[in-house]
Amino acid sequence: MTDATDELSRLAQIMAALRDPQTGCPWDIEQDFASLAPYAIEEAHEVADAIARGAWDELPGELGDLLLQVVFQAQVASEAGMFDLGDVARAIADKLVARHPHIFAGESRDKTAEQQVRDWEAIKAQERAARAERGTLDGVALGLPALTRAVKLQNRAARVGFDWPSTDEVLDKLAEETAELRAAADPVHRAEEFGDLLFVMANLARHMGIDPEEALRSANAKFTRRFQSVEAALAARGRRPEQSDLAEMDALWNAAKAAERAG
Hints:
The chain is mainly α and about 260 residues long. Helix content is about 75%, strand content about 0%. The protein has three domains: about 100 residues, MazG-like (Helix Hairpins); about 80 residues, Helix Hairpins, CATH 1.10.287.1080; about 50 residues. About 5% of the residues are buried. GO terms for molecular function: ATP diphosphatase activity.
């Protein structure tokens, strides 16, 4: 195992050199908070992808790419006199200590997981109040994936009683939104109704204890596997998908689906 302190210091020094106005890399010098933000999101998804695939040999590199985004943003901030990497580390260390009084402040560790979640949420509510975030939905990050943000917004509303009591009401709402989507007559209205339908689907996932992002990632992976099976079957017949038709590809799809379930 390497020394984390030494390697983090080395990484910070490399980043500072890349940002040097006289001798640094032109691309790195041009970056700012806004231009870097999409890369942080992309790298986080690549970390999740490596974990989902069990690619443990790739994970250190993917985590390193994500860490680079933190160091990069901190360097940009340091140059602007706002904060530096030490401030970033201090902020999360202080937050972890404050949010775990049962570990660092002598409180009892004899708590259920549910009680710990309630305590955690109470502490976060105090933090939001200190930041003058008074509204129930204040502080839910705009940059989250839309399905994830929908669930977080719904969870916040549910804490103050704005929630359906069971999945039955959500399913009724789903049918209502589906009918409204069918009736939408113009592109703008259809897009709005489609968004409402997705929002209800996220709510249904929440009520059923399903992570909608994970469920969709799984569906994407399943679609990819099965379509690749269709392509392979067509290739064995000397053809490509564009040389086939829907009936043939649908039959090959069903065969791939049956093979998966049998295996």
